[in-house]
């Protein structure tokens, strides 16, 4: 690789869809002098090795973080705190720790207090994904032309923020800076609630009487299919999202439930005007999505 | 056209997405000796004429039905009864009336009693669609490799059923016979509830505070986007679906709401095992959808 690496040594902790895709980008563009890959299980680590996703491998986050100038947490949120505690004594002064999780206030709560002074935590959320999981599911182009939101707390080292931003720019992303709480509220409605609803309706279908259930799959193209794709996303990751963005999800879910109850009542009492009014208004948002080139 | 037409004279009433797509198929394959197109407004009729979707045109369903051996209702459900009443005196003995609507018990309720003896009603539901509406939105391939469900009441003329089945086979569809009530229950969970939920969440987003709303569109690719597409479907058609499949939709909506409330409680009280269990089970349905080649 002729390009100058962005980092001397990167520790990639976690080889799911995001972690393994980032690893592919880092290798492709030579963004690191050395990549140490870390996974919890020997099985995942063996797969990452087979795919050539790093230069060295370990199941010990502390060893991975040793001497790294960048540590990337790409694990489910539930293990953030344990990893932060494990790596803290091994981080060198000036090291940057970042993550890729979908909940940012909790990331700051669970990681920042455990890091030593002189180590910089830059919370990040590359908004990209598919319904597939694991090291084989990753691909270089996952991040291309997508948003990456950074939510560094006030006072975070500007140089560290810029280096994390540059990493994601190299992956093809556009950087957006945001307050962590605002990020969590935006994601609650754009991502977390849609996933919760999709999981729910697919669950409702799973519990159907047998004579209906087989038909549901057969005729899923009528609308249900799109929900099954969303509801095939990684279970552990999503459990941790809901447990850690509780307040914002419950707030949006409350609003959604009120609105759904209103429609339920309109259907029961034959109030066609209530339905027509809503169904007409929702088209405007679709036009907004198309105009914003997000369709 | 060298092929022998299936029908001497077809009356196509309604030039929305389905009606105009069927018109294109009928013209392409020469399935009718003469096609008379009927739309409610002069504007739609002019557009249908411009697109060459029929041989003759009228805004009067009775005139369109005069002498037809097949009448296809492709209008919103809400006008079925009025059209049935209007065309009844003008239908010739042995004529077949069919429809393309998403609700079949109500179609039988609103059409059959008004037709004269000797005229055959064959309720049909070609399961195909996009989020676009109107005569310009139609295309020949809309029906290719999709299901068409026929729900003729017991005693319906077998020859009439077969002729309607053959029409949709020519459009590329696979025919499935089903009891109307069963059809409505299956569609309530596979199509109607998904649409209702999508409309609801997009409505919830529409009502957000301004500082959140613009972000929702910007970051819609995180999951919300798929719902905006579904919620851009034709408002009048969908109003009529919910008003006319009330019992089945309310039944499925009740189950969905119970399941959602259970998840809400699990999130509030941090019951990760409840979430993980559901999120794991829903993957099985996705595999079923993929195995059934409906993904």
What can be said about this structure in brief?
The structure is a homodimer of 295-residue chains. Chain A is α/β, with parallel strands linked by helices and 295 residues long. The first copy, chain A, is built from twelve helices and nine strands.
Care to describe what's here?
Two copies of one chain form a homodimer. Chain A is of the alpha/beta class and 295 residues long. Chain A folds into two domains: 7-178, Rossmann fold; 182-291, 6-phosphogluconate dehydrogenase C-terminal fold (Orthogonal Bundle). Chain A is built from twelve helices and nine strands. Chain A has helices spanning 17-29, 42-50, 61-65, 80-87, 105-111, 158-170, 180-206, 210-218, 224-230, 235-244, 246-268, 272-291; strands at 7-13, 32-38, 56-58, 70-73, 96-99, 120-122, 124-126, 147-150, 174-177. In chain A, the strands form two sheets. Chain A has a six-stranded parallel β-sheet with strand order 3-2-1-4-5-6, sandwiched between helices. In chain A, strands 7-8-9 form a three-stranded mixed β-sheet, with helices on one face. The two termini of chain A are 36 Å apart. The mean pLDDT of chain A is 95. At the A-B interface, helix 7, helix 8, helix 9, helix 10 and helix 11 of A face helix 7, helix 8, helix 9, helix 10 and helix 11 of B.
């Amino acid at each position: 690789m002729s390009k100058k690496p962005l980092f001397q040594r990167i520790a990639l902790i976690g080889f799911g869809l995001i972690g393994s895709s980032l690893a592919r980008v880092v290798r492709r563009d030579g963004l690191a002098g050395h990549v140490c890959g870390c996974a919890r299980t020997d099985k995942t680590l063996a797969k990452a090795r087979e795919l050539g996703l790093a230069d060295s491998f370990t199941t010990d986050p502390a060893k991975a973080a040793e001497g790294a100038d960048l540590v990337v947490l790409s694990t489910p949120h539930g293990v953030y705190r344990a990893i932060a505690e494990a790596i803290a004594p091994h981080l060198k002064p000036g090291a940057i720790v970042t993550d890729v999780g979908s909940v940012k206030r909790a990331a700051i709560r669970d990681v920042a207090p455990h890091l030593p002074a002189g180590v910089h935590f830059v919370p990040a959320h590359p908004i990209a994904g598919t319904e597939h999981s694991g090291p084989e599911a990753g691909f270089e182009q996952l991040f291309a032309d997508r948003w990456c939101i950074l939510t560094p707390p006030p006072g975070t080292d500007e140089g560290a923020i810029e280096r994390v931003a540059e990493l994601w720019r190299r992956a093809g992303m556009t950087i957006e800076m945001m307050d962590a709480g605002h990020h969590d509220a935006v994601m609650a409605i754009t991502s977390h609630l849609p996933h919760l609803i999709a999981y729910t309706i697919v669950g409702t279908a799973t519990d159907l009487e047998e004579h209906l259930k087989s038909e549901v799959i057969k005729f899923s193209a009528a609308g249900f299919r799109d929900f099954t794709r969303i509801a095939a996303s990684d279970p552990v990751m999503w459990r941790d999202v809901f447990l850690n963005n509780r307040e914002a999800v419950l707030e949006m879910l409350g609003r959604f439930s009120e609105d759904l109850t209103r429609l339920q009542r309109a259907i029961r009492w034959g109030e066609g005007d209530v339905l027509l009014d809503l169904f007409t208004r929702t088209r405007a948002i679709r036009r907004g999505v198309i105009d914003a080139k997000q369709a």
